[in-house]
Amino acid sequence: MATFISALVFLLAVMGGTSPAASQSSAPTEPMCYDWGESSEGAVSVVEGEVGWLSCPLFSHPSVYNYTSTQSAGHNLFWYRLPEGHDLEQPITYSSRLSKDRERLFLQPAAAADTGQYICMLRNKSSCSKIAIRLKVLRPDDVVKCALPVAVAPIEDLIPLQEGKTLDCPDLQDATKMSESAPKVQWYFVAHPVCDWYPFWDSDREQKGNSLQVHLMMEQYQGLYYCRVQYQRRNQTLNFTRSINVTAILPLSLPKEPSIMNPTHDQIFTVKTGTEVRLVCRGQLPFVLDKPWREIWWTVDGKTLDKLPDRFTQINRVVRDHFRDLTIENILVIQDFQSKDLKREFYCSVKNERGFDTRRAQLEEEVSLPTVELGCGLGVTLLLMLILFVVYHVFWLELLLLYRSWFGTDERHTDDKEFDVYISYARNSEEEQFVLLTLRRVLENELGYSVCIFDRDSLPGGTITDETLSFVARSRRLLVVVSPGYASQGSQALLELKAGIDTMALAGHLRVILVQYKPVRRKGWVRELRRARVALALVRWQGDKSRELSSRFWKRLRVELPVRRVSSRGEDEEESSKEVALMRLHSQNSTNSQTGLISNTVKDPQKVLNSAA
Ligand SMILES: *[C@@H]1O[C@H](CO)[C@@H](O)[C@H](O)[C@H]1NC(C)=O
Ligand SMILES: *[C@@H]1O[C@H](CO)[C@@H](O)[C@H](O)[C@H]1NC(C)=O
Ligand SMILES: *[C@@H]1O[C@H](CO)[C@@H](O)[C@H](O)[C@H]1NC(C)=O
Ligand SMILES: *[C@@H]1O[C@H](CO)[C@@H](O)[C@H](O)[C@H]1NC(C)=O
Ligand SMILES: *[C@@H]1O[C@H](CO)[C@@H](O)[C@H](O)[C@H]1NC(C)=O
């Protein structure tokens, strides 16, 4: 494919006497011209209708290509163009609009059709180099929306809040020089996402002549301001655009002296020797217009950190930027803090153009508490308490029994009573059976108590009332088997209950225990029982569950009954077993024959005689 350029090169090559074979190859320029490809600097953007230019990128590295020296070596610079969508390089037709000046190609102004790739070629008779660069001509409508393409980086400008300032378009003076009439300026404001053309929607900003006057600066007026300069030259209207990045700062009337926020006057840093210690200094460093220099630093014994061992380092961090008034934190890090460091003087200082502040950090050694040991000890104690609590709640009956068996006193040694237990119950078959077959059997045979059951132990012929009172008075406990029919009016049971309650109230040597054989509603109880219930122990029989001697029922009952040590002391055991044997004998007799033998526990011989008669 023969392009214009290859044809040109071919021509030159033939003229220069180089081998025609080389130039007739499929890409004849290649062996002769070094191709740098496309410039890495990226595309150049120009707004349609504005002035723009391309600089040959070969000269971006003057150490390789120096325009002056290449000219002296007989080099010529050629520009070619590869329009968008074409693969044919075309020579540039120079005109008043498109002109070449040294290494630049000027477009005055740029047109939409100028978009494309441009190649600049530098060559003399024996050597050749070329490089490509892309040009983008942007439509003003596409780009004006919120950001105008500006060839020059924005100028930074600061306006204090609540104050005013006049903005002039940069480079306007240059336009004035070139212009044949007074240049005109148009202002834009871009505060994303809105983009305003002048006039802006408020009265705080106003264009006066070519300048923009900000009467009253507000935070929302920060942003990019664009100005487009338009001028006349040679019957042509030319224009260019510049931008100003406006940032608000705090009013100049505010105090600008720096100050230290931390450490406060009474702040104390607790330090631990052998560890890494961090002292935080926090300073307020206002911005001073035109003199923004400011600093925050630590000194140790009057020395800055660069004159101290490597153990001392600092970390700087901007905590807050409030309209350029900075809050800066400087952390002094001391590795492996030593006790001698405690005696050093640590000062934090802040400084800006307006002033200086310094404060001493007070250090105090931490009193090391053996926290771990303390925590463990406390934990173990709590755990033990918890265990004890649980154990007590689950096994309190067992514990109570155990305690009594060790420390309880045997009431037999301190009183002169005959019976351990007097059983009072309703005389109906169910309760009677429970009393005789279960309660009596276990209490007498298995637990070794002496039991008094009126119907069994009383002698025929006696006055029931007297005998009941006497029996009850001679018992240590009155065991009342509560049932629905218990203690109906005029019954033996009521008599027993009254006797028991009276004895308890008067002499205090008797305790009444309630045994609930079947669930009974409180309402069904006789008044005496109801009244006394509050103060009395109630043990519930729970059917088959309570049959075992190790069940809760028997344990509860044993707690209420007098202490009976199941000891191995022969004497006691012998005595009690003797007693049991006697009781058994007696009980057999009393049940088998109403006129039988007199129990040896009955002490009144007169009564015995009376009953015998
Ligand atoms: C200058 O800018 C205006 C407005 O965008 C545009 O219409 C015009 O083509 C540009 N160039 C000249 C020479 O006015
Ligand atoms: C280019 O070369 C000329 C003469 O050789 C020299 O005076 C000039 O400083 C050079 N420019 C650069 C940018 O190196
Ligand atoms: C062409 O330029 C090179 C260096 O760029 C130079 O060495 C050479 O002498 C020049 N050739 C002629 C014919 O001037
Ligand atoms: C400028 O344009 C006017 C008419 O548009 C023409 O009469 C005049 O000759 C032009 N001047 C130049 C310097 O081109
Ligand atoms: C304008 O200035 C602000 C603050 O200095 C900066 O954050 C922002 O990037 C700047 N904008 C442009 C477009 O340069």
UniProtKB/TrEMBL annotation:
The keyword Calcium does not apply. Residues 20-132, 149-245, 258-368 form the Ig-like domain. This is Interleukin 1 receptor accessory protein. InterPro entries: Ig-like_dom (IPR007110), Ig-like_dom_sf (IPR036179), Ig-like_fold (IPR013783), Ig_sub (IPR003599), IL-1_rcpt_fam (IPR015621), TIR_dom (IPR000157), Toll_tir_struct_dom_sf (IPR035897). Residues 1-23 form the signal peptide. The gene is IL1RAP. Belongs to the interleukin-1 receptor family. GO terms for biological process: signal transduction. It comes from Astatotilapia calliptera (Eastern happy).
